[in-house]
Write a structure and sequence with these properties.
Length: 297
């Protein structure tokens, strides 16, 4: 019986180890999110004809896309398709199986670090080339993978590892969007589904640290600057007309996600999305960049 209690005491993480892992997760997620954000700017500036000197400048992505020639926009979109198709085929063919953040938090399997890193980089590169993929998923995945690696090194318990993986994902989101409180709520409400004191302290600590670290390369500025808008009858009519269309598109996307989740596919929906985005991109440049431009309009 004494040996059993001794083994439990050894496996139980001490408070100092938890503090160090929490701090390291915040720092790692902050640097990871900052690196992905700078990579996104680098790809955008190179793809649409602006030099490296504008990476930390104030030239917006919408301005770059608008000023680029039609041929350059066409080549950027073709490059996006090539990188996405070849890159993800190689990853799924030769890489380790990908484990989502939700599955890692539920302890359904460990996150393969290098496969997750490659997956995140592919997302950022394709978004920089004009893909409509969300740019917030990559820093969350990288933060979660870094947290999992730190927890494995520190030999934390499964429950503590679960909390820290969720904190790493929230810290990555906070670092990229400069929203420490938003990242904290995302960690507690969406990933963990609870507001216990230890989880809340860890989530807030990692998100604040990651945000401060990301300031070193991204600065302390607003991601979206939306001016005050007045409601008019035309806006109300437009909303009533466009709302059902957007709802139909979102329901189609959710259907496709459910089909992929159970291991199937719907080729008709895939082909529809393949043709819709390039067509809309040609007609309306504001849809490029995964939602970066719309709030600024």
């Amino acid at each position: 019986m004494e040996k059993v209690h001794r083994a439990i005491a050894i496996r139980k993480p001490r408070w100092l180890i938890l503090v160090l892992v929490t701090f390291a997760t915040g720092v790692a997620s902050g640097f990871g999110g900052m690196a992905l954000a700078l990579l996104l700017r680098l790809v955008q500036h190179i793809a649409y004809g602006h030099g490296l000197h504008t990476i930390v400048g104030r030239v917006s992505f919408l301005q770059e896309v608008t000023e680029a020639s039609d041929l350059r926009r066409f080549l950027a979109l073709c490059s996006c398709g090539a990188v996405a198709g070849i890159g993800w085929w190689l990853l799924y063919r030769f890489g380790s199986p990908l484990v989502s953040i939700a599955h890692a938090v539920r302890r359904d399997g460990p996150m393969a670090f290098w496969a997750t890193l490659t997956h995140a980089v592919l997302q950022i590169v394709t978004v920089g080339l004009g893909s409509p993929l969300g740019r917030e998923v990559a820093p969350r995945e990288l933060g979660a993978a870094l947290a999992a690696k730190l927890c494995a090194r520190a030999n934390l318990t499964p429950e503590c590892t679960r909390i820290m993986i969720a904190c790493g994902a929230g810290a990555g989101l906070a670092a990229v969007y400069n929203v420490p409180l938003g990242g904290t709520l995302f960690t507690l409400e969406v990933l963990l589904g609870k507001f216990s004191l230890p989880a809340s302290v860890a989530a807030l600590g990692t998100c604040v640290i990651a945000t401060l670290v990301a300031w070193l390369g991204l600065g302390n500025g607003l991601q979206y600057s939306v001016p005050a808008l007045a409601i008019s009858p035309s806006i109300i009519v437009w909303s009533l007309l466009v709302g059902p269309v957007l709802g139909l598109l979102l329901s189609t996307d959710r259907r496709q996600r459910r089909i992929r989740r159970v291991g199937g596919s719907d080729r008709r929906l895939g082909k529809l999305g393949f043709w819709i985005h390039p067509s809309v991109f040609i007609l309306d440049l504001e849809v490029s960049g995964a939602g970066v431009n719309e709030p600024r309009l």
